[in-house]
Amino acid sequence: QFCIRSKHEEEKKIQNTRLETITNEIVTRYEHELEKLRDNLVTAHQSIAHGKLQRQQLEKKMRSTLLQGMTAMNLESLQLFDKAALSEASVCCDE
User: Which H helix or E strand runs over 14?
Assistant: First the structure.
């Protein structure tokens, strides 16, 4: 009976050692995977921040371009009104 217990205890120790080894391998594998996911998350956050900055710069540039275009149209309109007013004045004076 002592031999059977001893053998049984030895088998149990071997199984526990195997279990610990496998558990450690699994934990290590998942820790590495978690670290990769964290790195990917940091990269994604950086990419999002860069995209936001680019969008803001493009919006600012578009606003500026739109305002320049509106200003140019307004100046051109004023020039046309001035020419029309001068034409009317010259027609009135010629009569």
Answer: helix 2-94
Structure tokens at 90: 């010259």
pLDDT at 17: 96
SS3 95: coil
Q: How far is CA 83 from the centre of its chain?
A: 52
Checking if the pLDDT of 79 tops 80, the result is yes
Half-sphere exposure of residue 6, counting CA atoms within 13 Å on the CB side?
3
Quote the CA–CA distance of 73 and 82 in Å, as a whole number. Answer: 14
